[in-house]
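**User:**
If convenient, please work through this fold.
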Amino acid sequence: MLAQELIRIKRDGGRLSPDQLQFLMRGLVDGKVSNAQAAAFAMAVFFRGMEVDERVALTEAMRDTGDVLAWDFDGPVVDKHSTGGVGDNVSLMLAPALAACGAYVPMISGRGLGHTGGTLDKFDSIPGYATQPSVEVLRKVTGEVGCAIIGQTGDIAPADKILYGIRDVTATVESVDLITASILSKKLAAGLGALVLDVKVGNGAFMATPEEARALAQSLVNVANGAGCRTSAIMTDMNEPLASAAGNAVEVQNAVDFLTGTHIDNRLWDVTVELGGALLALSGLAGNVGQGRDMIAQAFASGAAAEKFGAMVAGLGGPADFVENAPKYLPHAPVVREVFATREGFVRDIDTRAVGLAVVELGGGRHVAADTIDHSVGFTDLAGRGRKLDNAEPIAVVHAADDAAAERAAEALRAAYEIGDYPRPDGGLIRGIIGN
């Protein structure tokens, strides 16, 4: 086979076979397919698209360029994936809650992308926590604790890592076909039996409209199920930050507060419990979603999820007493101040993407991949839609490296919030359910 001839087939609207896609993806890893050819392939897919069976074949081809893990546990192996948002730290609570319910969760997560936060960047706030351990450590911690949240290793779907870097600089990131294969190649390589997808929709999501979000959710569900993994998707609102914190260390502290019952954001609770209930039902640990929700809620109420989280952190090199003493270990910004609106009134709308970008500008995200992150910066006590603001009730508290950065972030936050005399009706948190 010749890569250029396969690119020509797709460029002209043809279909590629599983063998042809395997050749392209394996060649990308082996160096027999150049980056230029991979870019041309990505652009051809961007414009011509793929049928569902092609998407399945591409996903499996990318998965098979590296290790595909197999497990020998006494319970189902499951995972969750979010398409990304602001203040979305669900994984930190959900993985240990699922483990407390009898599931095994080898969660392969990513770093921040654009205005969205990354799960691995949050865990890098914890001293000693190994976000890139060996596969052997992943197996050990998952088996002993029930969950391990780590990053993609060089042995997991290496074709995806290469192709994503190419897509990022060739304006082909937005292809539903390529997004689907990128997400699922890593998840399927983890040897999952069940997967639930949190597809965000709104001004803080990559998929801003319900139509775009539904198309991606349907593609992910179709391809994952086509590849043999029981999967469903829940579309959730991202027209405001999910948690009341946005940043890295501040979101870890928010998660610890949630797990210990110190402070629980209502929207965060609802999404976490809904996703967990769906996944327990998919995996057979619960008879239905409602029973699954109850099991997840009990895992939080009993303290079992917090215990699992602490054991996971310790197992991956973090402090053994992290849950009990998180403020002692997490980095703290030098400047912490309240941000007030320029007028009294109700929060009518939030430009959530702008909030995420304000975190990036504080140093909590990356402009380019090589940027160093300041894990201490971000926002806490973020006001949600419908909140009444006045001289005593701030929009948020900013955590910054210096006074100038704090003032810039405050101005960006004020600009992101629309304040009015009356609250605007809420469109709802759960926007749709696709699949089982």
Notes: The chain has a mean pLDDT of 93.
